[in-house]
Amino acid sequence: YYVNDGSADDTAKCLATLAEADRRITVLELARNFGHQAALTAGLDASCGDFVITMDGDGQHPPEMIPQMIELFKQGYDIVQAQRIEEGERASFKKMTSAAFYALINRISGTHIEPGAADFRGMSRQTVEALKSMPEYHRFLRGMISWMGYRSVILPYHEPSRVAGQSKYSFAKMFRLAMDAIFSFSLMPLYIGLSAGGLFFCLAVLEIMYVLSFWVTGRTSNLAPGWSSLMFVILIVSGILMILLGFIGVYVGYIFQEVKR
To answer: Count of CB atoms within 10 A of residue 51's CB?
Structure first.
């Protein structure tokens, strides 16, 4: 299967030519550009094989690794995850932000995602069917597949250069994918409100102690009229509001997880 995710060039014509020359090839034409994760999902939904391999069309996922993936599948692995080796490569903004993202998501979520493990993988029919049973809209396949917990193995590889052109995966798209991953696999952002509320309460206690120190030392004349009471009210009310918002956020997070099943 070839999935054309709303390409604006001659990709559709090239794929049609391939399909005419080889009846084993099926082309899936999406009505518009729905995004990388949606395109992969469309291909997985259409697949019917006992072992399904997903890979990008830019040549950076070496097809010569396919026999190794099939051999590992025959050994009993449900997921054969290819992992990009980046040792010795020059540091770049993309690599640094990628490393920071994986460090963050593995720290705040209960699902471990291997750094450098992109969407070049092989999956058994059982794994694909389980993935198809999770039809959520904001998809992060790397996390969803890791979360399922099937028997998996890592297959390292060195990423070759692109066949042609430049990556269309802009920083904005990577940021949206990272946000989908964080909000889908962790309730940690929801606890920020609770933490902020607790911080405001601590500041209110410190403010009370600060004001009392003026009363104990007899320096009340140094206090600006109304300042202490105003600051106390602001800090207490802010703390209560942030804690209540945190509670609401946690309940919404549980509802979100329940809706996703």
So the answer is: 20
